[in-house]
Amino acid sequence: MDVPEVIPIRHEPQGRTRTIGRWRGGEFFASVTGPAGRPGWYAVLHRFDPAGRHLDSRVRATATGPEARQLLDAWLAALPGREYRDIAIAPFEVRVDGELFGLVVEEDDEVEEDEEDYRFTAELLPDGLGFHEPWCGCYDT
Length: 141
Description:
This protein is mainly beta. The chain contains 1 helix and 11 strands, in the order βββββαββββββ.
């Protein structure tokens, strides 16, 4: 199965996708994350148009997780018409401080048709959320 143009992501109020949804201008994915192997934290807000295409990203480094959470809460409060719900977004990439942020599609050419592994995956970086067939919006960590 090929990768869809927009990848569904399920809103889980108690999970790692609790801060995703729609706003008046389209869709958003927000998180607080600490890139692997680096000190500090990032507040991250990716915005997309109504079709799920990347518009822009706000990414800011902070010293602590609570500081990043406070910053992210302020950004989310400023989104007009914000509601938390499922989204579907196209793959995209943004680099900040040399770190890759985005929804990146990877292909494994060595997977055989009858194997249980997935030929295509999409990973939200640096959050480490993986999406794959049947592209139902569920994620693996």
